[in-house]
Request: fold
Amino acid sequence: MSLRTAKIISLLVTLIGVAVVWQGSNFRGLGNQQGYQPAQPINFSHKVHSGDNQIQCLYCHSAADKSKVAGIPAASTCMNCHRQVLKDSPEIQKITTALAQNQPIKWFKVNDLPDHVVFDHSRHVTAAISCQTCHGPVETMERVQQFDALSMGWCVGCHRTHREVTLDETGRPTVTKEATTKRLMASTDCSVCHH
Amino acid sequence: MSRSVNKIWQELLERTADGKPFDLSEKSAIAGISRRTFLEVLGYSTAALALSGCRAPEQAIVPYLKQPVEFTPGVASWFASVCGGCSAACGTLVKVRDGRPIKLEGNPDHPLSSGGLCALAHGMVFSLYDPERLRQPLIASRVATWQEIDNEITQKLGAVKQSGGRIRLLTGPITGPTSLETFKKFLAQFADAKHITYQPVSTDAIRQAHQRSHGVNAIPSYRFDKARLVVSFGADFLGTWISPVVFTRGYAKARSLQNDEREMLRHVQFESHLSLTGSNADTRVKVSLREETRALLYLAMLVAESVASDNASGFSSPDLAQLTYKTRAALELVASELTNHPGSALVVSGSNDPDVQYLVNFINHAVGSYGNTINLTATSADNQSSDQEIIELVRQMNAGEISALIISGVNPAYDYFDRQAFINGIQKVPLKISLNSTMDETTSLADCVCPQSHFLEAWNDVEPVRGTFSVNQPTIAPLFQTRAFQESLLRWSGDGRSFYEVIRQSWREKLFPQQKQYATFDEFWDQTLQKGVTVSESAQSNPAVFKSDGLQEVTSRLISSSRETSDDLGLVLYQSVALRDGQFANSPWLQELPDPITKITWDNYISVSPRYAASSGLEEGRIVRLSKGPAQIELPVHIQPGQHDNVVAIAIGYGRTKAGKAGNNVGGNAYPFVTYDGTFRYQAFGINLEKTANRVEFAQSQSKDSMEDRPLVKELTLTEYTTGEGEHHSEHGSLWSAHDYPEHKWGLAVDLNACVGCSACVLSCQAENNVPVVGKDEVRRRREMHWIRIDRYFEGDREEPKVFYQPVMCQQCDNASCESVCPVLATVHSSEGLNMQVYNRCVGTRYCENNCPYKVRRFNWFEYSHSDPIANLALNPDVTVRSRGVMEKCTFCVQRIEEVKIKARNEGRAINDQEIQPACQQSCPANAIIFGDLTDLKSRVAQLKKSGRNYTLLDELNLQPALSYLAKVRNREEVSSLA
Reply:
């Protein structure tokens, strides 16, 4: 390696280093998919369905209040309405074909957590946290994108402040144990999500 | 400095495989690259990697086309079914996540197994996803469709039918009434047809003896739960004998001290080698093989004299001089105890000699066991093999008298005692059809291979005990082109129905009319499926009377055969707790499960007593050649405390050659030492032992046998327990401030008095928590990954040790030594008392492992996850698959805690006691593990921790573990004079 190349490389390394220190918060989010908005196999509009037509989130994502996952609706769920509504649209035709050919539709996952994270939809939905709190104004999105960072700091930010129970001066819940289990604070134990 | 560098090089030099030192002058491929270029390349590739990491990951989600109503994605469904691991058919609940069965748990509502499962059952999930299962039918090793093979077989069977040839159906023990009906229907097509049941480890003698003594050709149900005194002559009823889970349940129940009972079952074991059952006995008497028979004779005589004087005349005494003083004294005591326990004693023997079993029946009859601890009405329908039938079959095959042989679920080319005769014979059979599910030793000899579905993929019904019926329901569609073997037989009978329809039809006609609870058949069927079992009330009582006419003949025969001769070194063959008869040897889970007694994995061995080893100059791991006639085996020696000096012992089930990747050539095949004398005998005399020059190191999970005078396992006698003498409470001050647990504090109690060491919890944990298998070599390096281990200690005399078992998993300490040394806070204390291990934070310093006094942390030395698409279906999606360089350990099954917590909170209620059960507790056949919330003072675990038997392990370290042990109690003060 010539001296010149070495100089260039060391200059580059210095510049990158300066950038990392200066814009630290951006680099910390490496792997952050906020704003991720993949094209889906079917041009489905949440705006039309949940915005304009006011269809409840749980109508399609029916597992969200009972399961870890919210669930992507089966093709048969779409056809509940689309057997009548817009059945000739080329996008609906894709679903009809999929059903006819027995070929499941392969959607792209927008909100994807790392494999070492367990998130339970049912607990949040049942605790009356609206879907929009995490997923943003989905009812205005033509094509869904990841609204928030979904990072650990973002989760814990909520869990730290959402304590639904008042504590007495010793730090114990002021209500009885039975009552606390009904409406308890959000945990910040690692093992709640990482196991 | 230079010295240390030299030393490192010295080590490298030593480590070259071929023994040649490294040639340092030679330039390797990397040697041409300068340090600078190397760093440059490294930089570019890192940058490239980082950039590629910025791209959005494309993860697909594929929802159902038509949503099945009964499934919610992400929520497990449970199906009541039965285990197909052996014919005991314990009740199971199969956990199905997103369409795939991932775990078997015990069905608490099952009347026989009542929620217990054995280690083998937990390994069954692995056998479902075994990538080496046969995937489609084969005709002469060529892949075929079911249509083709059905045509081929129907045509050939048609020819057999026409010619009136002899056809035989060879299966393992089948208890299902509908299966047996299907067999009958299939065989009825032929002029000379027969169904033969074959079981490599036979209990035919018990059946024959009952035929002789009571006129009932069956194996009775043994009710250990009703017994107060159990005397066993070499029967390993807690480990491998007939129905170990059911027996362990009953035994543990009768010995339970968890509800402040003041008395417990007493167990006396006479045996030659140390078995799991013997190691749990209150009194264990070591006898040689022939002495075992003599001891039984003497006991029968003593019992006859004191109880049934009318039969006493039939006895001639065995040569008392040939019984050791100790054995005699023990027998005299046992005899008096037996007579003091009328109707609540039980004598069992593991022998397969009908004479021995007849004598056992006599003793049981004399002390009133029949009708109390032995049930001849609800007889056991399993183990229905008649050994004589397969002998006859092999003879006929060799004589060329068999036209067609259909084999299902058995592997005689491996486990028949004269396997060469079987192999020669089968080659003379014109039509050989195998319905086995893997290309095993027998299937590879067949012309047509019609792989059967796994029991988790097919419908079946079973009747393990007369009157107790279960439906085995499929929990997944067949993964491969396989078919239930009954369905194959239906096709070849010209019946186009599915086996499901046949079962329903037969239940509608036979079982439905026998019950009155349900009005319609569909209701009855649905309820049975949901509960997993139905008990028919129509079983007729059978007033069987003991027939003593053969007594004299039997005793005189036994006296002569049990006389000590010069070649008195005896070989005893036994089943290992993990592998049993070897059918599922291809499961690495089972292979890596440490043997409860020896703690050896991935091998079988010749066990010898310490004194025998010393006198023959044998050391641990020395390979010896054992031979008797043509049978020969080369295995390493294991020195086993507690074994009789005149006995060597080998586990069968090893030495498979066509089991698959995990099971091939592990250990040696000891089946050739089995002999036949009316029934198969698992003992041999006149054996020859030769030392070889080789030696191996065992892959052992525990190498230290002694507690080194530390009170790791505490033991009390029953008197000490009932008088409260053995109680010991310790209080420690602490420098640490106490933790605050606002909601829950999880705790666990392990009842060492209940635990028998069967190791089912180890595999249950492995299946639940995605614990990897590391292989023989890594176990040798003490790198096994089991989150729960069972420590086994021998105390006292090496010739007659006391054995202790202690399950050890993470103790979830309040003053945890692991938490204070982690530099990255990857292990921290939760607000519910758990020591959390956060995999994504762990950097692998292993400080925590070093600082843990219980040695329960496991480090991923390698990337154990693999990309096999079939085998990975067994993974539990609720538990992270750990990667290389990460520490892991028992979490008290935190995923189950969270699941129940979420469920309870969603429903707005408190968590019920026993609603959360970690995997180890759920299917423990002995109910030895109890989990719960310690802040709930009414919980079972909090109650148990108040017991006088409660203590914590390594109490002096004051780590304040959430796990505590309940001391073991031995019911043996009466015999302390003997010890």
